[in-house]
Amino acid sequence: MSNGNQCCAVILAAGASTRMNLSVGKQFFPLLGMPSVARTILAFEKAGEIGSIVVVCREEELDQMRIIARGIDAKKIISIVPGGETRQQSAAAGLAAVPHEAELVAVHDGARPLVRPEEIDACVADAREHGASALAVPVKDTIKITDSAGFIDSTPDRSCLWAVQTPQVFRRSDYEAAMRRAQEENADYTDDCQLLEHMGVRVHLCRGSYENIKLTTQDDIITAETILRRREESV
Questions:
Q1: N or C terminus: fewer CB in 10 A for the chain?
Q2: Banded pLDDT at 1 (limits 50, 70, 90)
Q3: Whole-model pTM?
Q4: What's the whole-number mean pLDDT along residues 18-37?
Q5: In sequence order, what DSSP letters do the residues of 36-70 get, joined into one string?
Q6: Which helix (H) or strand (E) holds 197?
Q7: CATH H superfamily, domain 4-234
């Protein structure tokens, strides 16, 4: 383990899953028989750069999350806390539970269960070198910027465009300062990199994997299980 005790992961699993139209929250939906959030937690359990884990979930799901954590014997989890109304509020709740000795914080979407331990380790190492880092992949499609009427206004250079994923890893002191500033300005961001960018902190991008998808629609569940089956067959 390389300085793993210095990095705490905050796994955000407090989303309402309104777009999935499932009988259970997407964080609990089984992927090949295992709740998706359990797969997410296990990836961080196996990552050598991660020393501790805080899980954020909806208050009414705290007991269910504790049962899952016990079921997979998640030894790195130090706290399971209730989230807020927005992603940023949930991130702030998770940050408040991070141990004082953690110098780095790795924020991750609980609905990204296919992240690999080696990708987590690479992102943490990148943050240690550059101060802040996020997993990302180059955009494959040509992107268009439109006007308010839906007509193409411009076409940005695709070679400079990246799709940002999680984890996003920051120095704890920078992340705390950025969170305080956002709260003081009554600003609410859906991406943690934006918090740091607003503070003038430059975030380096660490090349991730196109398999690190976020479960947003039911089609994503089919894709995720296809990827998992392929991984199992290659072992």
A1: C
A2: very low
A3: 0.93
A4: 79
A5: HHHHHHHHHHH-TT--EEEEEE-GGGHHHHHHHHH
A6: helix 192-198
A7: Spore Coat Polysaccharide Biosynthesis Protein SpsA; Chain A (3.90.550.10)
